[in-house]
Write the structure tokens for this entry.
Amino acid sequence: MPIASRTEVFVTYLDFFRSSVIARVQQLPDAELRSSRLPTGWTPLELVKHLTFVEMRWLQWGFEGKEVAEPWGDHRNANGTRWFVAESESREEVVEALRVQGVHSREVIRGHGLADAGQPGPRWDGAEPPTLERILFHVLQEYARHLGHLDIVVEVAGGPVGEVT
């Protein structure tokens, strides 16, 4: 059955990528969640937290123009070169935060037209706010890229290969 609208295409793909990231992280043993197999040093839990903040930065802080206490709270240092998850944050907490952000993201997407422009604010640093459609293309490409990264990490860690079902 075809998807009813372009808006629902974005929602469906975003939900697919989000659930695929969560499934991959759920497949990893605890020892792999906080260790890195890559020269850049990011860990699977850091990637999940980063994606939570990506959605929040682009849709909540950016598009909606809402006040956000720590829009870059997924970064460890001021120049944003390292993601960060505190030792006290569990897999369940990090994954649940992504799920909760997903609920909010769906509400924002379904509550606006794709041609609607974002609210002016600090996210855009004085530039003209983009449309919701442009923002969603960015968020989807970020998910697609990072899910590919995570697929490789899971495979190297001995996890399953192929589509997550």
